[in-house]
Amino acid sequence: MGTRQSLLAFVCSAGSDGNGIVTVQLSADGTVTERGRSPAENPLFLSIHPNGESLYAVERVDSGRLSAYRIEPGRGDLTRLNGRSSEGAAPCYVSVDAVGRYAFVANYQGGTVAAFPIESDGRLGEAADVVRHEGAGLDPERQAAPHPHSIAPGPRNRFCYAPDLGTDRIEIYRPDAESGALRTAEAGATTTRAGSGPRHIAFHPTEAICYVVNELDSTVSAFECAHETGALAEIDRASTLPPGLDGDNAPADVHVHPSGRWVYVSNRGHDSIAVFAVDRASGHLDLVAHESTRGETPRDIALTPDGGFLIAANQHGDSIVTFAIDGGGRLEPVSELAVPKPVCISILEPTRRR
Fold first, then answer.
1. pLDDT, tens digit, 9 for 90 and up, residues 204-224
2. Residue among 317, 326, 325 nearest 298 (CA)
3. Could you write out the DSSP letters of every residue in 152-214?
4. CA 291, 212, 91: angle at the middle one, nearest 5?
5. DSSP state letter for 349
6. Least buried of 11, 64, 176, 232, by fewest C-beta within 10 Å?
7. CA-CA-CA-CA torsion sign (85, 87, 92, 95)
């Protein structure tokens, strides 16, 4: 693992007391401290460019917006570069492809996903393509219309996967490298269990497997990924809650440990992180533990690149909490920092720092 070093991370603070992007430092021992705050209008999610020189945030303004920011060397202060319409209402997710050529956005209320070219200076071009999802699901309140909740490039940067909470489908796209067009993959979309509400997706670092957290039925699903076609085939599903527990819960985020040995899911309601061990032979999940996030409504989590720490953002607890990860994947709380309404965390990898 080598010598652990301090890291910079960026936190979307969407509360009226914050309403910006907070730069924090995670020390080698897991202590987290604030470095500064940059203005942003109701930021909900962010993604860092592969070169570490810019980041992109979706902002819940009236029409929906995607903004580009330059990451200043040193303290990690942000300078806004430009912004574009997110091409849909209530944007909730942004990702950047592995080579930093395009940013992809999911618009929860707008029912659309969109691709934006990234210029050489980090600025955003006009939308290259916008795709509107169609369909509905079982839940008359949450699934009356499409609600794409994320869009993320796969590990080989050939396909993009867009879990749609409203339609119980994972739309699969093959972006055109030159035009940015989001072409539907030949394999077509993957249908998830009716009423499950797929939300976020995370990919195993070495195996052709991914994990999708389902918000409406508090489960996480494992899928085999066909790298040549992009197709997904479900191989396992597990509850994110302790056995026999009843009550309101809505899991939000999912991440795979850099070693590929564990999967972590945040539970809003139970206010915990569910820890799963990954079976090396099958990719199936075995529940290891639940760890309290020491706050309310953990909307987002992040893992350090070396796998030593997990950070949880307690949206309604106004805090971010760091946990050390032990040799069995379990979590031990280390440090806490007050942040108004934190909803997303993204860590700047050391190799990407200027």
1. 999 999 999 999 999 999 999
2. 317
3. EE-TTSS-EEEEETTTTEEEEEEE-TTT--EEEPTT--EE--TT--EEEEEE-SSSSEEEEEE
4. 100
5. -
6. 176
7. negative
